[in-house]
């Protein structure tokens, strides 16, 4: 018999902070962690909070269940075909919200590590590719299967083509064939491949190692890396040289150089 209480829906995204690392866990395992509007909005809000949190120096994006992320929620999309405009307004809004998340990750001051188990397909592959580093379980698979359903993975192609060589990206996009973790590592989509049981620990350890460095140096470095990567060579060196000067004038650079010369561990002030 009903007891008068109502079940509370599980959050679509769970944040856990450990030391200086924030872990964001996609929490829609029954829906293969599909990127519903609710999940996209939760990611946007969490990334905004983390960007303003000086206590967090690295981020891990993980997922519950056997699938990392199956991309956009196709059931949510299909339901809007019946809209008076055929779903156009909803689709435009959905793609804009997804693009905002994928741009927020490289724009985030803190580095982001993806911990991928199982399949990462379509926008799920895009999510992994948008992260700064990827740790994958041996059973992980990456795929952009849009052409199989008449929907080319154009937005996933943006992040994918910036993470791997152009022809490798085009082969994934045109054939829809999944690649395993080993091949993903070979083409540069994945940094490390580990046994399934070690995935979270490896991602956490990698994030903790990054978080142990000077936050000022790491964040300046990430920002400069993304800024210079799309520039012509001479402009890229101008941007990088200016960043080096800014970094050299920081307290942590003086501390780090002094500690190296004195053969002691540095004491970062993160400024």
From TrEMBL:
Pfam families, per the entry: ECH_1 (PF00378)
Coiled-coil parts of chain: none
InterPro entries associated with the record: ClpP/crotonase-like_dom_sf (IPR029045), Enoyl-CoA_hydra/iso (IPR001753), Enoyl-CoA_hydra_C (IPR014748), Mitochondrial_ECH-domain (IPR052377)
GO molecular function: enoyl-CoA hydratase activity
Keyword Transit peptide: yes
Taxonomy, superkingdom: Bacteria
Signal peptide location: none
UniProt KW keywords: Fatty acid metabolism, Lipid metabolism, Lyase, Transit peptide
Family classification: Belongs to the enoyl-CoA hydratase/isomerase family.
Stated role: May play a role in fatty acid biosynthesis and insulin sensitivity.
Protein name: Enoyl-CoA hydratase domain-containing protein 3, mitochondrial
Organism classification: Bacteria, Pseudomonadati, Pseudomonadota, Alphaproteobacteria, Acetobacterales
